[in-house]
């Protein structure tokens, strides 16, 4: 039996229960989790903003040790330390053929397939985003288990599976920040803090963090922010003032709200780049006039999983962790157990803290 946090229905409270996890089948691996990050996407799955068949075990940002491998698995072995990849690319679809694995058409298939059962009544359970990391153990496709580079603490490595790859990719792949440019980051949660660190590593000059909570200033500055702006009606104006009066070269939005996306756009200079990482609901509509689109010449881009190829990016990020340039522990403000996840959700809604990390 395995203890897990189960979402019985959309908008229902999580339940900590025992589940029956099968042995890995062909092409699958079983992983004993060391830790799992509590991401805003998990909250979005629980409240229906993102679709997820239920009942389900949520959690998609995790790391652990392979405890068993199914037939035909050659990429990892029992005892290997791995990071979960919640969006593993198939390698065969149109987007994979374009070398854009973050857009893989088949990456989400595992989330719709039952993978375990409730111990109490045998009900089928689905894996949240295909990973089901809010459990002591999980079973995933082998290509969703990425070998962890040496020298990285296993528990902190969970953050590589979403927050760090997303923040790193937003800076280096989507926005393509260049040394000396100015960057403004909206939202100083787990992804935002990772983005700030990535901007610092990229050599950005002015790095402005924006958040609704004044308590985030210390976290943001520790991550690399040179300035902190408390979000308000004049946020864009204040960012422009801090960036030479013309606006930031790059804005990265990590919140997923229409008003924040609009403000991020307005805070960039003419010809600037805005990358949207935050996941908003369908009701979040952003408006621009045709004239301003022409006049400002800005670029607005969506960003899925940091536009990252985890197999390519993890070794690069690991090098920065080993050198001390990237500090995973600086993203974590709370280390909790499974029963602490609801409180972590509440903290995210209230805009408090960085990343909460479930440690097993």
Q: Count all strands and give the number.
A: 18
Output the helix-strand order: EEEHEEEHEEEEHEHEHEHEHEHEHEHE
Approximately how much beta-strand content do the residues carry?
25-35%
Number of helices: 10
Describe the structure.
- It is a single chain.
- The chain has helices at residues 40-47, 94-97, 163-174, 190-201, 216-223, 235-242, 258-266, 290-296, 310-323, 341-349, and strands at 2-7, 15-20, 28-38, 56-57, 61-69, 81-84, 116-118, 124-127, 137-141, 145-147, 183-186, 207-211, 227-230, 248-253, 268-276, 299-302, 332-336, 355-359.
- By secondary structure, the protein is an alpha/beta fold.
- The strands form 3 sheets. Strands 3, 5, 6, 9, 10, 17 and 18 form a 7-stranded mixed sheet that branches. A 6-stranded parallel sheet has the order 13-12-11-14-15-16, with helices on both faces.
- Helix 3 (163-174) crosses helix 4 (190-201).
């Amino acid at each position: 039996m395995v203890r897990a946090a189960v979402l019985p229905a959309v908008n229902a409270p999580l339940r900590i229960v025992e589940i029956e996890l099968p042995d890995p089948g062909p092409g699958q691996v079983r992983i004993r989790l060391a830790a799992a990050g509590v991401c805003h996407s998990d909250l979005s799955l629980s409240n229906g903003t993102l679709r997820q068949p239920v009942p389900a075990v949520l959690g998609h940002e995790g790391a652990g040790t392979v405890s068993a491998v199914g037939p035909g698995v050659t990429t990892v072995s029992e005892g290997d330390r791995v990071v979960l990849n919640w969006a593993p690319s198939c390698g065969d679809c149109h987007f994979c053929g374009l070398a854009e694995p973050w857009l893989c058409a088949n990456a989400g298939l595992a989330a719709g397939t039952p993978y375990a059962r409730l111990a109490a009544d045998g009900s089928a359970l689905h894996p949240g985003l295909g990973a089901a990391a809010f459990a002591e153990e999980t079973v995933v496709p082998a290509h969703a288990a990425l070998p962890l580079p040496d020298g990285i603490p296993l528990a902190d490595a969970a953050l590589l599976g979403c927050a760090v790859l997303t923040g790193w990719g937003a800076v280096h792949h989507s926005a393509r920040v260049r040394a000396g440019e100015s960057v403004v980051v909206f939202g100083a949660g787990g992804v935002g803090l990772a983005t700030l660190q990535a901007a610092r590593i990229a050599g950005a000059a002015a790095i402005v963090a924006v958040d609704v909570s004044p308590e985030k200033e210390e976290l943001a500055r520790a991550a690399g922010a040179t300035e902190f702006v408390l979000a308000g009606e004049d946020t864009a104006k204040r960012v422009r003032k801090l960036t030479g009066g013309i606006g930031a070269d790059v804005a990265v939005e990590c919140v997923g709200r229409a008003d924040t996306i609009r403000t991020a756009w307005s805070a960039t200079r003419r010809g600037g780049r805005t990358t949207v990482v935050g996941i908003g609901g369908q009701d979040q509509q952003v408006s621009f006039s045709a004239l301003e689109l022409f006049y400002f010449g800005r670029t607005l881009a969506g960003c899925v999983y940091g536009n990252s190829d985890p197999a390519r990016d993890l070794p690069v990020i690991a090098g920065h962790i080993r050198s001390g340039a990237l500090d995973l522990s600086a993203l974590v403000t709370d280390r909790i157990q499974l029963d602490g996840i609801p409180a972590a959700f509440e903290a995210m809604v209230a805009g408090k803290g960085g990343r909460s990390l479930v440690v097993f």
